[in-house]
Amino acid sequence: MKRGTLKGITVGSNEGRTHVLLLMPRAHRPDYESKIDMIAHTETVHSTYLRPREGKDAIRDSGMEPDDHSFHLINIATRDLGVWMQNLIQQGWNRCNMEIIPNNSKAMDIMCFAHPSSTVVERLPLPWNPFDVEGRCYNHIPDGTAIIEPAPEELDSEKESENLSSTDSDDVEVESVEAIVETTKVVVAEAPASELLEEEVRRTIDLLRADGMDMMQVMEHPKFAEVSERASAANVDVWTMVVSTFQ
Asked: Which long-range contacts (CB under 8 A, 24 or more apart) does 58-65 make?
């Protein structure tokens, strides 16, 4: 975690990525964070929690109590969006049509998903541009954990500890690293391509359903058509998967 803006920490990494605003009751945030820590995404996810302290009255006038909600804004690789949202959608999260209006300006085109207990409003007024406001920013690395950067005073104390504990340990350090590498070699079996494609098909169906599409609309959607073609070529029974999902 470090202070900054979402725009600042994502400079140079916007190709093939998208932004999503996740709305949830504040009381649900710990459960949400425990779940996203377990997500096996492939690229780093950048995020911040929006805290519109000075704009609360405008949000209340829109019909939402800001103190009861958490607003998680993420920058995520498009190919990881299905993985990130899959479990949430299965728990009842839905895509919602909520316009984000910063500083009474033009509405921003941001994909929004909401927890089923959230209050969803037609227009969400914010006192600033959500990408430019400074706050706590997080980098969720691909193994599902967030990178926590120590504060300067923490860094200083760590350096002092290192200086106090460092003796003639250069050789020992090299040996210990080599020992760790030798003792942690693990053979990981790769999942069959068909299983990976089945999972991708399920994620695609879930995302399109969350967007309000019925079975025929899902099957006609270009994103589904693309993954369906690849899955069928790997002998995945796509038709049965679709039908069973909508039963």
From this structure: 58/125, 58/127, 59/124, 59/125, 59/126, 61/125, 62/121, 62/122, 62/123, 62/124, 62/125, 63/119, 63/121, 64/119, 64/120, 64/121, 64/124, 65/119
